[in-house]
Amino acid sequence: MAQIWWILGGIVVVVAAGFALRRLGRAAGTRSAVFEEVRRTLRDGSTERVGGVIVVRGSLGPLGVSVDLQSDPKRPKQSPMWRVIAEGPVALERPVEARVGGWEGWIDPWLQLGETLTVLNVAGPGFTLHSERPPRADHPLVAALRRQGERLGPGAVHARHDLMRVETRFSARLEENRPLFAYLHVVGAIAELPQARFPAGPPVPRYGMLPEG
Asked: For the chain, how many structural domains are there in total?
C-alpha cells in the first residue's frame, strides 16, 4: 500500500512539473513576441541584453525609449511588469502621474501628497490624475489616455518635463499584453505635443525625485 502512495505522489509531482514547464515555456514565448513587436513599434528599434535583462531601445518622436520587464517583490500583484522609460523634452510644466484601473504603487511616491483628479472613462478603465497643483480635466495626459479607450489596462504613467515612465502588468497570454502598446501610444501622443516656453522664474517646488531603477 505504501508503495502505491509513493507511485501516486511521484505521478503528481511529474504532472505538476510538466504544467510548470509548459507555463514557463509559454511565458518565454510571449515575452519574445512582445519584445519583437515593441522593437517594430519604436523608430530605429533594437534589442539588447543588459546584465542578463532584455531591453528594447528606440524612439517615439524626440523621446529616447527603453522597454524591459521588471519584478517588484513589494508588489507581487503587479509583478512581473512591463516598464517603459522615455527620456527627452516633454511639453509639460509640472510633474503628473496617472494611475489606471486601480494600479497599486507609485512611480513617483511624492505625488500622492499632491492634488487628485478622478476621471471616469466611459470607453475604458477609469483613472486618477495626481499633480502638485489641481489637475484639469483638459490635461493632455487625460486626453491621450481617453483616446486609447478599452485598449488600456491597469497601469501607471508618470510624466515630467524631461521624462515619461510607464508600468503595466505582464501576462503569459499574448493577447493580455495589449495595454503595453496602448501606453506606448500615450507616450507617443505626449511626445508630439508642441514644446511650450514656460515663464521664467524659480523652479516649481518638488516633493521629491523619482526612485532609481
From this structure: 1
